[in-house]
Amino acid sequence: MAFRNHLYLLYLSTTFWTWFFLAGLWTNYYQDLSFINALIFVVIFPTIVMLFIGKGLLRSITKSGYFKVALICASYFAFVLLTYDFIYLKLYLGKNFNYLTDYWYLTFFSPIPYLILLPLGYSLDKKMIIH
């Protein structure tokens, strides 16, 4: 995968986190939301967005080897977002590591890119073999 694609994925994940962060400022980074609202706005809505853009994202990066690219993309979205949350919550706000349970929705979202992008990458690779 080309270096520019890595920069592109870093840009996408940073942009996603920034919008997510800005949208959550008025709710104490989503802590003031009810469980159901946090689940909807922080987990379900981004999951649906990823479902809709996932295939296009993978195709925009490569023409083959989709599963490998899906693994890389999922890692960018999972680890970059967790890193930014760590920087904000642990280093900036001084929260202890209980933030992983207090901000459960952030922790819960982390495996979702893998659960969405890996099956998409696998199915795209499988379609290439058939065609």
Number of domains: 1
Order of H and E elements: HHHHHH
Distance linking N and C termini: 23 Å
Give the fraction of residues assigned to helices. over 70%
Main sheet, how many strands, which sense, barrel? Answer: none
Strand content: under 5%
- What's the tally of helices? 6
Rg: 16 Å
Question: Uncertain runs with pLDDT below 50, 5 residues or more?
Answer: none
Category by helix and strand content: mainly alpha
What is the arithmetic mean of pLDDT? 93
> What form results from the Cα inertia axes?
elongated
What is the number of E strands?
0
Could you describe the 3D structure shown?
This protein is an all-alpha fold and 131 residues long. The protein has one domain. It contains six helices and no strands. The chain has helices spanning 3-24, 35-61, 66-92, 99-102, 104-109, 112-130. Helix 1 packs across helix 3 (66-92). The protein is elongated. The model has no long low-confidence stretch (mean pLDDT 93).
Write the layout of secondary structure elements.
Elements: H1 3-24, H2 35-61, H3 66-92, H4 99-102, H5 104-109, H6 112-130
Helix pairs in contact: 1-3, 2-6, 3-6
Offer a few descriptive terms.
131 residues, 80% helix, mainly alpha
Short description:
The chain has helices at residues 3-24, 35-61, 66-92, 99-102, 104-109, 112-130.
